[in-house]
Amino acid sequence: MIHVQKFSISTDGFYGALHRPEQDGYPGKALILFSGSDGKFRLTSRLAELFCVNGITTMALAYWNVPGLPEEFRELPVDTLEKASLWLRNNGYEKIGLWGISKGGELALLAGSLMPELISCVVAVSPINAVCQGISKRRGIRTLPCSSWSWHGQYVPYTPLSLSKIKLLRDCWKGKEVTMTNIYRPVVEHPLPESVIQGV
Predict the structure, then answer these.
(1) Would residue 200 count as lying in a domain?
(2) Is residue 158, in this structure, part of any structural domain at all?
(3) Mean pLDDT by 10 residues, the chain (200 residues)
(4) Residue 40: is it exposed, middle or buried by C-beta count within 10 angstroms (0-12/13-18/19+)?
(5) Cβ neighbours of residue 34 closer than 8 Å, sequence gap 6 or more
(6) What is the pTM of this model?
(7) What CATH number is associated with residue 105?
């Protein structure tokens, strides 16, 4: 049996669902997990259920593309994770971990570096080591003149992306799969120093 408690931006300051197992295999510990740039909360919740059936208290969290949060990667507030982490800490969870994939991996590393007093561990699956430029997925992918993330009302310094739709389509056609490797490789190899995520 999994017990689910839901949260919303309007009442709690973050959008998520806490999955608690019948038998808590790790008392006092909780995991916050979130998706990549797909922003599909249903998939995040399904993954939270998988962790939960293995005895881990897990918070599925949305950080964009839900009511009350931005619909683009435009200075998305890392504060959302802070609010969820504080709720867990105030409700008896002394050790809090983060799990994110792809763009969510970037967020997990960044949040861990900004909140070392709250976050005990970070699992970043296929992340990038620096904060990237904002992007929009409306009418195709395009860059925005801003950071992907903000923290306490201030934008987080970023490295610009070199986004060519023609090159992106050519890479996907040649590789016979969707890939953005050549867009992010320059960020990994030559990030602006101030955008590199520190301390994780």
Answers:
(1) no
(2) yes
(3) 92 96 95 89 93 96 90 93 98 97 95 96 93 83 91 96 64 59 78 88
(4) middle
(5) 44, 60, 61, 62, 63, 99, 100, 104, 107, 108
(6) 0.90
(7) 3.40.50.1820
